[in-house]
Amino acid sequence: MKFPKFKMFSSLMMILALVTVFAAVAAAQDTTQPAGSRSVTSGQKMKLKGVVTRRDADTFVVRDFNGVDTTVRLDDHTSVKSKGGFLRSGNNYAQTNILRGLNLEVEGRGNASGELIADKIRFNESDLRVAKAVESRAAPLEERATTTEKRVTDVEENAKRLSGQLDELAAVANTARGGAKAAQETADAAVAGVNSTNERISALDDYEPQTVSAVNFKTGSAILLPDSKTKLDDIATKAMNAKGYVIEVSGYADSTGSEKFNRVLSQKRADAVIQYLVENHNIPLRRIITPYGYGESHPVADNTTREGRAENRRVEIKLLVNKGLTQPAPVITPRTSGE
């Protein structure tokens, strides 16, 4: 009769080892310790940026980039919107969309409890998608961790009723500690990957010039010269091979003529460039930033000389590419147990 009892005890110890490893994985998801907590003076206006680390019914905690936590309270007047992108305004969102892991900006004022009552909350829709993805994976893990903790409690109570076998129990505990260390290393690598992805997503609204060129015109003319068309052909070829590009077109004139005449002429020159790109290279209009004619302002050369005026009769074309799409994707290299 002793053999079945020992077999049952071994099975319980194996369960204890497994659930301890699962609990260690869940606990390793939040290893960053806050540098402190902030108390907001009553009536004090404040604007802060950070990541939501905790979400309750009417409050949430924001940890800024210095590691300081601030409790934010929501009320019926809190405005929750996404940031507007290129040529568009943001969208309104329900307060339930404020999730753990969301990068956001909060503006508000302090109350008597040291909390920040939010007036406005703004975030990028890309950050919201990331937070929703993280939340959809975190909730099942938390439920599993709760179930695991209950199982650990049950196993510990059963283990207390069993006598002896201390050496075997110590061996199981050592194995669990080794599994927790490996889980911690894997979680650290995952956090680094998420941070790198967030940086890449944040750059989606930023553009950097890939090509800058200028085409010149005759005095009082908005007709493209042959060499100007060659330059535009080159820009169009580069644009069609780029990802996430836009084209910025700016027209200029020299000081010959009146200010009003030069402003109209510079606009016609910019329109001529856009017409050529659209009609000859099928560049979509959504890829072209609204052109603008600056007239005789912003000269690049001396308008008192013939050569300088020739340089100032120009249209500048900038091929801008999206920084978020040109950055390399993050690579997560998990650590091995032998490292």
Question: What would your notes on this structure say?
Answer:
This protein is of the alpha/beta class and 339 residues long. The chain folds into 3 domains: 2-30 and 138-203; 36-123, OB fold (Dihydrolipoamide Acetyltransferase, E2P) (Beta Barrel); 207-326, OmpA-like domain (60s Ribosomal Protein L30, Chain: A), CATH 3.30.1330.60. It contains 7 helices and 11 strands. The chain has helices at 2-27, 125-161, 166-202, 226-240, 259-281, 306-312, 323-326; strands at 36-38, 45-55, 59-63, 68-73, 79-82, 103-110, 116-123, 207-216, 245-251, 292-293, 314-322. It has a 5-stranded mixed beta barrel with strand order 2-3-4-7-6. A 4-stranded mixed sheet has the order 8-11-9-10. Strand 9, helix 5 (259-281) and strand 10 (292-293) form a beta-alpha-beta unit. Helix 1 packs antiparallel against helix 2 (125-161), helix 1 packs parallel to helix 3 and helix 4 (226-240) packs across helix 5. It is elongated, with a radius of gyration of 31 Å.
Number of DSSP E strands: 11
Low-confidence stretches: 21-33
Please report which band the strand proportion falls in: under 5%, 5-15%, 15-25%, 25-35%, 35-45% or over 45%.
15-25%
Separate helix tally: 7
Helix content: 40-55%
CATH architecture call of the largest domain: 2-Layer Sandwich
Summarize model confidence as the mean pLDDT: 82
Quote the distance from N terminus to C terminus: 45 Å
Number of domains: 3
**N-to-C order of helices and strands:** HEEEEEEEHHEHEHEHEH
Under CATH, the topology of the largest domain can be stated as: 60s Ribosomal Protein L30, Chain: A
- Which structural class do you get from the secondary structure elements? alpha/beta
Task: Identify the CATH class of the largest domain.
Answer: Alpha Beta
Quick one: CATH superfamily of the largest domain? OmpA-like domain
Largest sheet: 5 strands, mixed, barrel
